[in-house]
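Question: I have long wanted to understand how a fold can be written as tokens. Here is the record:
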Amino acid sequence: MAIESSTSMDFNALPREIGLEIFSYLPLGQRLEAAKVSRVFRDLAYNPVEFRKTYREYNEDESSIKEIQDILRDARSFEIDITQVTYENIKTLKANVEQIKKDSIIKIWEKIKKDKPNLLDYPDFTQLEDETCSKIIEKFDAWINKNKEDIFKFILK
């Protein structure tokens, strides 16, 4: 006679320390994807103590969970696969995302120059390539503010 066992265990019933241990084996991208499953998974994935400890092993900066989430959100919007993102390669992913943003802003700006060469103070686009993404955005915003009257005129035509 065979004995059947139908023992099941609820993940929520596990001690928190065991849940944290299990989540510590997940690469960063998978950990943050798992966080979407439930509140318990979210709390385990975003545990600030574990996050900082693990992240600092691979990176010198003090990026927060929010900053990492922003990088991953941007990567997904650019259709970059984030499932294999780890603490070790998050800097590479961030650099790739920043480069895509920079290239996109410069292309938009060059297109505006091509279509509306009479607007004021276009930058040297080759020099912009050496700037940080945030600096390019700052310069683009300043340029928009300087030319907003003329920009609105050609948008409204």
